[in-house]
Specification:
four-stranded antiparallel sheet, binds pyridoxal-5'-phosphate, 14 helices, 412 residues, Aspartate Aminotransferase, domain 2, Aspartate Aminotransferase, domain 1
Length: 412
């Protein structure tokens, strides 16, 4: 299915958008409000993958026959598509990983670990997903260095003064999320990058929650490392991207050894290929790579600006609707919020909220959202979380509110 949309999404054309997602045809009553966990999949992306597997399947970089050559070309074309999607002409800045978590762990072990020394520090924030927190914590413990964790203010915005103070000439990396997966806070990443670069400190941006609806370009933002997952951008599970600025490429050491990542092997020695190929030991997730590049094409066809506008409208509509239910507390009121809202209902555990709403076909998340340090700072055990994507509607938010009112009546 060819998808050419590039229009403002509104109540007249949202049905058209939804037709690209077969799940809403097979489950017309599903109100899916958990896109921060994973997006639903459009037909075109799954079709791109299955077409490859059914009709073009061959391993890459190995055969000289046509089928294998075509597979290799498609694989490398996918890398160029992702590079262009990230505003770069250099596809060799892009490595394929298993996801955001894997990409962050690669930066921790391949780039950062070999350069750490006593007296160094790593700066991250309290609002990070565990994937962008534990790898740094582990490195700090291993090398006896300091992990500096930027707190949030009472609204759920980063304490930028503290961030500025934490970054010094001993900081080896600043690792920060673009959008909080729990509060929806949009962090001022351009400012953070400028502050860090003024002290010559590299910055890793976790774009898991922003990649589907923010224009992210290495040319403009000048980040050092960017990480995200395919399944957060309508693509497949088990595939993700690590983009590395050209100036760091030489420092990206291989982590796994095997076929595909070597220049030459003798009994005595091995010469490795350069980044990003030195990370591709063994057969990669070829159909996942094709799927993630199809996802980039899908998002470009839809238009990130349209998606962002749609999510903004839904977010502020939902905040208004939820504010009219006095028994609810919205968790976090950041200056800028995108597509994600956490809340709690008075005297009702978030798991009970999610179970009750499930009976009305509403899928939302309850728990700690892999952000335990954040919830601890906020003095919370858990929250209920709704998150939106391109296929959500204001009517679904009205259904959510109706179901929440019933829950509160039932519980009182
Ligand atoms: C902000 C953020 N970072 C990292 C991750 C981890 O992504 P993955 O599980 O795809 O590796 C998530 C997943 O929810 C996330 O929201």
């Amino acid at each position: 299915m060819v998808f050419i949309f590039k229009k403002h999404i509104n109540k007249n054309n949202i049905k058209n958008v939804r037709t690209h997602f077969p799940i809403f045809k097979s489950q017309p009553n599903l109100v899916y409000l958990d896109s921060a966990a994973t997006n639903q999949r459009p037909q075109s992306i799954v079709a791109a993958q299955s077409h490859f597997e059914l009709y073009e399947n061959a391993n890459i970089h190995r055969g000289v026959y046509d089928l294998s050559n075509k597979s290799s070309q498609k694989f490398e074309k996918s890398r160029s598509i992702i590079a262009a999607f990230l505003g770069s002409e250099n596809s060799e800045t892009v490595a394929f990983t298993q996801g955001t978590t894997a990409a962050i762990n690669i930066v921790a072990r391949s780039y950062l670990e070999p350069r750490l020394k006593s007296g160094d520090n790593i700066v991250t924030t309290v609002m990070e997903h565990h994937a962008n927190f534990i790898p740094w914590q582990m490195l700090c413990k291993k090398y006896g260095i300091e992990l500096r964790v930027v707190p949030i203010d009472q609204n759920g915005d980063l304490d930028m003064m503290q961030l500025k103070e934490f970054i010094d000439h001993h900081t080896q990396l600043v690792a920060v999320t673009h959008i909080s997966n729990t509060l929806g806070t949009i962090n001022p990443i351009a400012d953070i990058i400028a502050i860090a670069h003024a002290k010559e400190v590299p910055v890793l941006i976790d774009a898991a929650q922003s990649i589907s609806h923010f224009d992210i370009s290495i040319e403009h933002l000048d980040y050092d490392f960017l990480v995200f997952s395919g399944h957060k951008m309508f693509g497949p599970f088990g595939i993700g991207i690590l983009q590395v600025a050209e100036k760091h490429i030489q420092q990206m050491l291989p982590l796994h050894y095997g076929g595909g990542m070597i220049k030459q092997v003798t009994i005595e020695n091995t010469q490795f290929r350069d980044f990003p190929y030195n990370l591709d030991a063994g057969t990669p997730n070829i159909s996942g790579v094709i799927g993630i590049s199809a996802a980039a094409v899908f998002i470009d066809a839809l238009g990130k600006k349209n998606m962002r506008q749609h999510l903004e409208e839904l977010t502020y509509y939902a905040l208004d609707v939820l504010a009219q239910i006095p028994e609810l507390t919205i968790v976090g009121t950041p200056k800028k919020q995108a597509g994600i809202i956490s809340f709690n209902a008075k005297n009702i555990h978030p798991h009970d909220v999610a179970s009750f709403l499930n009976k009305d076909g509403i899928a939302l998340r309850a728990g700690m959202h892999c952000t335990q340090p954040l919830l601890a700072q906020m003095g919370l055990q858990a929250t209920a979380r709704i998150s939106f994507s391109v296929y959500n509607t204001k009517e679904e938010i009205d259904l959510l509110a109706l179901s929440l009112r019933e829950l509160i009546k039932f519980w009182s």
